[in-house]
Amino acid sequence: MIVKNEQAVLGRCLNSVKDLVEEMIVVDTGSTDRTVEIAHSYNAKVFNYAWNHDFAAARNYALDQSSGDWNLILDADEYFISDCSAELRKFMELGNHIGRLKIINKFRDKDGEAFAQSYISRLFPKGVRYEGRIHEQVVSDLPRVKLGVEVGHDGYYEASRSDRNIPLLQMEIDAEPDNPYYHYQIAKEYNGIENYSQAYFHLKKAYTGLSKKEMYYPNTVVDYLYAMISSKQLDDGLGVIQSEAARLDDFPDFHFVCGQYYLDLILSDTAKYVHLLAQIEQSYLKCLELGETDRYDSVIGTGSFSALHNLGVYHEVTGNVQKAAAYYREAAAYPYAPSEQRLQLLGHM
Questions:
Q1: HSE (CB half, 13 Å, CA atoms) of 30?
Q2: What distance in Å separates the CA atoms of residue 142 and residue 70, rounded to the nearest whole number?
Q3: Which are the contacts of 95, defined by CB distance < 8 A and separation ≥ 6?
Q4: What are phi and psi for residue 260, nearest 5 degrees?
C-alpha cells in the first residue's frame, strides 16, 4: 500500500486483509494524522517515502520492500467485502498469472448512492512492476484472470481528488498528447467536478485516438455519449452509436446511455428526431435482455433496476400509467428508491 492521511479508513482496510497475508507493507508519503500509528497497530511494516508526484514510482518502491513471492495491492479506501482466502490461494497455485479483482466503486449520482464495478490487476507474482505517473498500470505480458473476489471502494463517494489528479494527468498529456488513456482519465476527473465542456473535449480526443483494442475502449464510448448529453453537444452521437452498435451490442451500459441520448436528442429538436422515440424503449429493453454483466466495467443497475425504472418513466410520460407502474414495481422490488417514490406519487403502492 501507499498512503497519506488515511486514518479514517486504513484500519478497515488492514482489518479486512490481516488474516489473508503474511506481511503488510505500508509506504507512507507524508501523513500528518494517525495513519502511521494505525498501520503499526496492525503490525504492518511502515516505510517513509518522499512523494515525487509519481504513483508508479511509489508503488514500485513499496513492491521493493516486499519479501513475498506474491503481492496483493490495495488502497487505504478499499476493503475486502467477504472471505476470499480459498479463491486467492487457488489462483496463486496456477503459477504466473495476474489476478484482476472486482472493485465495487461507490459513487453519487442524481438519485443518490450508486455503485459501479471494474476489474483491476491487483494480485501478481514477484517482479511485476507499474508504470504511469497517475492511474498507474501493471506492466506485464502475463495472462490476466478475473477473480470472483470483491473489494469495496468508497474513496470518491463524498470526496474529489481532482485538485491532485488533474495536474498530474495534464503532465502526462503534455508528454503524450495523443495518448487516449490520459484523455479518458482526465475527462473522468472533469466530469466529477461538473466541468462538462472539458470532459467532452477530452473524451472526444480519447475516442478519436482509440485503436478499439484497449480494455477501456467500451467505457470511453459510453462516457463520450454521456459527455455529449451533459455538455449538450449532441451532433455526433448518432454517428457514434451507429459505428459502435455491433461491437458493443452485449454491453448494457452502452444501450442504457443510448436510451438517454435518444431522449435528449428528441427534446433538443422534437420535429426532427421524434421518429427515434421508439428507440428509447428498445434501448432499455435490450439492457434487460442482456442483464448485469461481468464482461465489462459496468454501473450496477444498467441491466436491471435502472433500466426498469427508465422504462417506467418512458411509459409514464407517453401516457401508459399502468405499464409504467408495472415497471416501477419490478424496479422497486430490488429495492430501488426512485421507483418506490414514483409509485407513491402515482398512488400505485
A1: 5
A2: 14
A3: none
A4: -70, -35
**pLDDT tens-digit profile of 78-112?**
999 988 999 999 999 999 999 999 999 999 887 78
Helix (H) or strand (E) holding 36: helix 35-41
Average pLDDT value for residue range 298-309: 98
* pLDDT the model gives residue 349: 61
Mean pLDDT of 217-235: 98
Give CA–CA dist 242/246, Å, rounded. 8
Instruction: Indicate the CATH number of 2-153 among 3.50.50.60, 3.90.550.10, 3.30.450.40, 3.40.50.720.
Output: 3.90.550.10
Q: Give the pLDDT score at 207.
A: 98
What phi and psi, each to the nearest 5 degrees, are found at residue 60? -70, -35
Domain 162-346 CATH class label: mainly alpha
The C-alpha cell 511502515 sits at 46
In contact, 87 and 148? CB cutoff 8 Å: yes
Cell of 100: 484482476
Tens of pLDDT, residues 164-214: 999 999 999 999 999 999 999 999 999 999 999 999 999 999 999 999 999
**Helices 252-268 and 305-317 sit at what angle, rounded to 10 degrees?**
20
DSSP string covering 109-137, please? Answer: ETTEEEEEEEEEEEEEETT-EEE-SSS-E
